[in-house]
């Protein structure tokens, strides 16, 4: 008789706060033992010389998502979750995106229908809210939060997605009542619009002008405003995909004042710059995303933010569009920067990039790596302690890393369908070699071992960072949060 379905033996187990040299026993998809010399198991994995980390949680990715123009991402739930798994992830939380006029309930049903037959690892959904009608705010959103979709994203820019400050306040007030986490895309829409008009008037339409039109000042201003709105309503927010020191400093200042303002950044802001948008011909289109990559000084600032805890999460913002008329170049072979699909692929390389340059080169330690790529996402998005750590009772979700393995990035070896990688040719040291989700061996030695549809939908709890404040903290400081007094 075996005691365990699976035993991972002799690895070095790393969590956000601990290091253990022992075995892991798994039964029925859960971790049931952490000790040396565990008894017999049906399946054994020798992890000697390897690092056993909690599976990565990819908390910001766009999968099988139709843009407001009707453009589809090049990955569906099958290719995106396979790609995520090969990159060391065991959970993804993409978006169920509402377009104006859509019923949110219907949107969620549609995304479920896409994901159920295809996902190979576990998944949840954040909502994107572009049409906060009384019906959405009063009925649909509260019901969806209660059903386990406990976070949503709002946009301060993009013509067909953006909310004005009044609508943002409505959303934030609703999030406060329900205890949901609000993710904010913070860029000043009018600044982008005005700069775009000036650039286009001057005949400056090449991809590199995308980065000029999405200015750092506009990102900083919108971040400041988003924080002001969240302070007024007294509810936590997460500023996503921060690219600039201007935005980062706003977040840091708010945190120093004690406000629940969280930050996320992404690989494109550490490894790419605006110069990548100035490659020959239209090649720069491959690097167009919003906010755009900045310069090397901004990259260093963002590294500082990861080191000093300004950022809690490091996500890919995987938004894959092929470099052809079905994706990046949907508006023709030579489009102005205003008509290039925004987004870069990165779901498979998020962890190897941060491991190699961050841990390998001593910029962050391995525990910070785990916190930034798994544990904090689990806590922010209501999955902790089931996900995001290695502990008895948690799901058996692991990425086993070979810290010595070196590979040169080549898109042909990746599993997404973007058709290119912005990181092509980079030499990275340290790769996940075995990935396990709820005790299932998903990836091992370069092979996918599970079927599409075997990933499970995750009903999420309220965020550990965003419990309803009127329940947890009845004594709101009304001198600093005037708006909150009106709401209480
Ligand atoms: N910007 C977004 O806001 N979402 C997806 C891709 C991008 O570049
Ligand atoms: Zn965004
Ligand atoms: Zn995004």
Explain this structure to me?
It is a single chain. The chain has a domain at 55-380: Metal-dependent hydrolases (TIM Barrel, Alpha-Beta Barrel), CATH 3.20.20.140. It starts with a strand and ends with a helix. With 488 residues, the protein is of the alpha/beta class. It is 31% helix and 22% strand. The strands form two sheets. Strands 1, 2, 3, 4, 5, 15, 16, 17 and 18 form a nine-stranded mixed β-sheet that branches. Strands 6, 7, 8, 9, 10, 11, 12, 13 and 14 form a nine-stranded parallel β-sheet that branches. The chain has 14 helices and 18 strands. It has helices spanning 77-86, 104-115, 134-146, 165-178, 189-201, 208-213, 216-233, 245-256, 268-271, 296-307, 350-359, 366-380, 469-472, 482-487; strands at residues 4-14, 19-27, 30-35, 41-46, 51-54, 56-61, 89-97, 122-123, 126-128, 151-155, 181-185, 237-239, 261-265, 313-314, 398-408, 427-437, 440-444, 447-448. Helix 4 links the parallel strand 10 and strand 11. The chain is globular and about 75 Å long. One zinc ion (ZN) binds at residues 185, 240-241.
């Amino acid at each position: 008789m075996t005691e365990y379905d699976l035993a991972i033996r002799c690895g070095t187990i790393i969590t956000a706060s601990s290091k253990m040299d022992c075995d892991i026993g798994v039964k029925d998809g859960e971790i049931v033992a952490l000790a040396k010399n565990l008894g017999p198991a049906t399946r054994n994995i020798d992890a000697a010389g390897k690092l056993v980390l909690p599976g990565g949680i990819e908390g910001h990715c766009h999968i099988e998502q139709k843009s407001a123009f009707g453009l589809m991402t090049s990955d569906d739930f099958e290719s995106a979750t396979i790609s995520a798994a090969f990159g060391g992830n065991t959970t993804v939380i993409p978006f169920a995106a509402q377009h104006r006029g859509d019923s949110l309930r219907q949107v969620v049903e549609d995304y479920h229908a896409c994901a159920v037959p295809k996902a190979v690892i576990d998944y949840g959904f954040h909502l994107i809210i572009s049409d906060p009608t009384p019906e959405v705010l009063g009925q649909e959103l509260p019901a969806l939060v209660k059903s386990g979709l406990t976070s949503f994203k709002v946009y301060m820019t993009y013509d067909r997605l953006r909310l004005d400050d009044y609508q943002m306040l409505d959303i934030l007030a609703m999030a406060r009542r329900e205890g949901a986490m609000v993710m904010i895309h913070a860029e000043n829409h009018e600044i982008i619009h005005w700069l775009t008009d000036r650039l286009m008037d001057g005949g400056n339409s090449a991809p590199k002008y995308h980065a000029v039109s999405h200015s750092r000042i506009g990102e900083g201003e919108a971040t400041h405003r988003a924080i002001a709105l969240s302070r007024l309503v007294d509810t936590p927010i997460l500023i996503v995909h921060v690219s600039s020191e201007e935005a980062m400093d706003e977040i840091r200042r708010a945190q120093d004042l004690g406000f629940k303002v969280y930050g996320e950044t992404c690989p494109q802001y550490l490894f790419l710059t605006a110069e990548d948008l100035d490659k020959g011909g239209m090649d720069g289109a491959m690097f167009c995303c919003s906010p755009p990559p900045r310069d090397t000084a901004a990259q260093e600032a963002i590294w500082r933010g990861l080191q000093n805890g300004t950022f809690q999460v490091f996500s890919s913002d995987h938004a894959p569009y092929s470099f052809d008329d079905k994706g990046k170049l949907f508006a023709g072979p030579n489009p102005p920067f205003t008509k290039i699909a925004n987004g870069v692929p990165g779901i498979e390389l998020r962890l190897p990039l941060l491991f190699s340059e961050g841990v390998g080169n001593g910029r962050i330690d391995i525990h910070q790596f785990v916190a930034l790529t798994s544990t904090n996402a689990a806590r922010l998005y209501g999955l902790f302690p089931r996900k995001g750590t290695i502990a008895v009772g948690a799901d058996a979700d692991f990425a086993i890393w070979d810290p010595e393995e070196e590979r040169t990035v080549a898109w042909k070896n990746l599993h997404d369908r973007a058709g290119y990688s912005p990181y092509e040719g980079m030499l990275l040291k340290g790769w996940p070699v075995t990935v396990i989700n709820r005790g299932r061996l998903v990836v091992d030695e370069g092979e996918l071992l599970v079927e599409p549809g075997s990933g499970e939908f995750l009903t999420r709890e309220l965020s550990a960072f965003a419990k309803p404040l009127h329940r947890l903290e009845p004594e709101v400081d009304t001198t600093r949060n005037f708006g909150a007094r009106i709401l209480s």
